[in-house]
Each structure stands twice: as structure tokens, then as C-alpha cells.
Amino acid sequence: MAVIQIDPRDSTPIYAQIERGLRAAIATGRLKAGDQLPTVRQLAVDLRINANTVARVYADLERRGVLETRRGVGSFISASPAEARPPDEHQRRLGAFVTRVLADATAAGLSPREIVTGIQSHLKEGA
After folding, report:
1. How far apart are CA 100 and CA 119, in angstroms?
2. Are residues 68 and 93 in the same domain?
3. Is 0.70 topped by the overall pTM?
4. Region 23-37: what's the mean pLDDT?
5. 5: Cβ contacts below 8 Å, ≥ 6 apart
6. CA end-to-end distance (rounded Å), the chain
7. Number of domains within the chain
8. Which CATH number fits the domain that encloses residue 59?
């Protein structure tokens, strides 16, 4: 069985599905720093896709510091779970959190300015 799965019905490009799957496996601890990945050829066979697609993902993840390739040995996980998250993941989560807070504040009859003032006041008290 492959380290990850792809969904041919998903409109997301296959290389993006592979990258997302590898990052998720690292972030959840299924793959850990130092674990060896299947060879490009083996993962391509397992997923029934072109080896160039896998090679592209491995190269991109190596450039981003998620993988390390040792010539003649293979590709290994080099990132921690936190480092494996997509670069925009933090901003996406922050945006979703702010949206929820503002929606809750509006429902409670509070203005965005009151929320900001309340947060600043709370931070001053805690400092």
C-alpha cells in the first residue's frame, strides 16, 4: 500500500494531492523525520501515475526543506510536523479564526473596535 492516496475524481492536480498527502502524513506523525520514502519509481507504480509527477513533488519538497535526498540512498523526511504544514496554512487558520471571532462578536452585539480594544486590554494585563 502507498504512503499516500490520490483521488482521480478530485479536481486538485495530482502533484498537489501528493504534496498535500505527504505533508499531512508528516503533520499527523504517520511519517517522521528520518523515515525513508518510497523511491520515485515505486511511489509512481503504487499510485499508478507518471514518475515525473512524483519526481517533481519530491524536488519541490526538497527545495522547501521537507525532504532530503541522499544520492544513491533515497529520499527521507527532514521536517518536523510543524515544518511540514503548507506555508500558507498558518495564515489560512488565522483568517478562519478571525472570521469566527468577528461573527461571534457581531452576534453578541460587539463591534470590531470593541473586540480589538478588549484584546489589547487583555494583553496589557497579562504582560
Report:
1. 15
2. no
3. no
4. 92
5. 21, 47
6. 51
7. 2
8. 1.10.10.10
